[in-house]
Hints:
Elements: E1 9-14, E2 27-32, E3 41-42, E4 59-60, E5 71-72, E6 89-90, E7 111-112, E8 140-145, H1 169-181, E9 184-189, H2 192-196, E10 207-208, E11 210-211, H3 216-219, E12 222-224, E13 229-238, H4 246-250, E14 254-257, H5 261-267, E15 279-282, H6 285-294, E16 299-303, H7 304-312, E17 318-330, E18 333-335, H8 340-353, H9 356-365, E19 374-375
Parallel strand pairs: 1-8, 1-11, 2-7, 3-4, 5-6, 8-9, 8-10, 14-15, 14-16, 17-19
Antiparallel strand pairs: 2-9, 12-18, 13-16, 13-17
Amino acid sequence: MKFNKTMVVVVAAGLLVTACGDDKKTTKTTTAATTASSGTTASAGTTASAGTTASAGTTASAGTTASAGTTAAAGTTASSGTTASAGTMASAGTTASAGTTASAGTTATAAAGTTASGGSAGGATASGGTVDCKPVKSGVLSVVTSLPGPKFWGTQEDGSDPTKIQSGIEYDLANLIAAKCGLKMEFRNENFDAIVAGQIRPDSYDIALSQVTITDKRKEVVDFSVPYFKSDQGILVKKGTKVATWDDVKKLKIGVQATTTAEYYLTSGEVPGWKLPNVSSFPDLIATYGALDAGTIDAVIIDTPINLGQAAQSGGKLEVVAQLKTGEEYGAIFGKGNGKKAVFDPILQGLVDDGTVNGLIAKYLGGDPSKVPFIDVPTS
Length: 380
């Protein structure tokens, strides 16, 4: 898991991925979409993507504008100001952000808010009603994350460029939260260590989503949301590598990302039985996975969901053969004592309880963490 990350919404997904290009931060904006399910009428002023094809019977009231060329899936509409490449389609359960482009250093806007069931994700729906999320920036949910975060924020190819990212577990989750607040979503890339250390100015973001593991140490400097993701430590190896026991693990040359919980467990000596002799720390996940590809290490240990995401993009070359039980969970980060936790906890808990988060996990990871076998770690 990551130990550090930031958010105008900060994305911290239990893994430690340090942000690349921290000296050149770019911001990407996604519009929390106003949606109207099939056969309903959107409220006045609703903006739909121009030229948008909505489901049969969906009616937008006068003043609705549409930007050219986006096609929304049945039962959904895209929100105001959406810019998308011609013919872009947002299927049910995804955002309409696919195909949105923006030149580096600019703000990219894309529709968002379609739920996995193809209905309204919140925001200004036909029935009305939004949550007052008290954003730090008017009309915007500001999110912070640490890139790269394959499958959580974009793909491996997207890397650390916010303008390229249009998908992912936490990307979609941020859009869904923004929709509940009636806001558009903007996110930026920050250093993971800074995020978890509470070094990101609390008045510069609303929430951080970055695969961040909840720990008592981190709670001293930041506030955590309710848990939204369970994560133990997965062992990623080249396909065919046999790892079935702790003795097998001890024989491996292992790579971890610096400042992650994996590094702590395997190198600190503070967790009985966990310390290993052949562990190398790398500054970020790109370098860690690169060492595995190059053969300088035999395995990467980090949060199981993160490694599953990497394996899913390897073309069958990599696999998560086992995991180590830690009981870790991811949580969103807020500025310490700034009141954001009370605002966003009910929204996040609702998305967990109604199955939305599990749906995103199933969609993006290409594997179920609960099906990866556990290896017992001796306590002495």
